[in-house]
TrEMBL record:
Homohexamer. It comes from the Bacteria. This is Uridylate kinase. The gene is pyrH. Its EC number is 2.7.4.22. Catalyzes the reversible phosphorylation of UMP to UDP. It comes from Massilia cellulosiltytica.
Amino acid sequence: MTKPAYQRVLLKLSGEALMGDDPFGINRATIERMVADVAEVSKLGVELAVVIGGGNIFRGVAPGAQGMDRATADYMGMLATVMNALALADAMRQQGITARVMSAIGIEQVVEPYVRPKALQYLEEGKVVVFAAGTGNPFFTTDTAAALRGSEISAEIVLKATKVDGVYTADPKKDPHATRYEQISFDEAIAKHLQVMDATAFALCRDQKLPIKVFSIVKPGALKRVIMGEDEGTLVHV
Ligand SMILES: Nc1ncnc2c1ncn2[C@@H]1O[C@H](COP(=O)(O)OP(=O)(O)O)[C@@H](O)[C@H]1O
Ligand SMILES: O=c1ccn([C@@H]2O[C@H](COP(=O)(O)OP(=O)(O)O)[C@@H](O)[C@H]2O)c(=O)[nH]1
């Protein structure tokens, strides 16, 4: 049997993808399917840390936050990621995976705080670690949290599971003529202002020489193919 291409990965799961076809919130069938994909690779022995987004519940720059103080709206966004993390960890438990949620903001009665050595210990024990509350700071995104935590845990790659199947020349949801890159350098992605991830996340990964793979969360089996090193999505590299 072929071996996975990676031993330790940071998986960024889109908050918005959790909605499925619903207008907001967590779609049960969608979260169960995502967790089944995660379970499949976890059982291959790959150490998995997850950063979960919150856009399905609250986004700091959304119309619902209009007129609000940006930092306050962002803290609401971070709390939304905590809810998603709890739902995700519970769905994992139901599928036989042991998961631990760690929060970047103090909320001890609900989840344990992020402590790096503890996170590393959990990973070595084969537990899935779910990082909640992003970076713990307003004005950042969970993509940047994925770059940060990925660097901290020495992940070999950041896997950005999102609604599109890679990085395109333009936003494929707006431009039907956009074409997909098989691979692209950080410098080119930043210079061309490709919006699939924010520039802060790209820059941090570039500086840490941490590659990113952008792939579809909707496509069945895509996560496993990425983990096995097969041709899937777009690789963003140094
Ligand atoms: N050049 C591009 N290539 C691919 N996707 C892009 C590009 N520009 C913008 N996007 C959009 O970025 C979205 C992914 O980013 P984001 O909204 O942060 O999603 P997530 O919820 O996964 O964090 C895609 O759904 C896509 O519509
Ligand atoms: O380090 C962080 C991470 C997230 N957020 C807030 O949380 C929201 C939800 O996260 P994100 O938009 O990255 O989630 P996703 O795109 O995956 O749904 C963001 O809009 C921000 O308001 C933040 O302030 N700091």
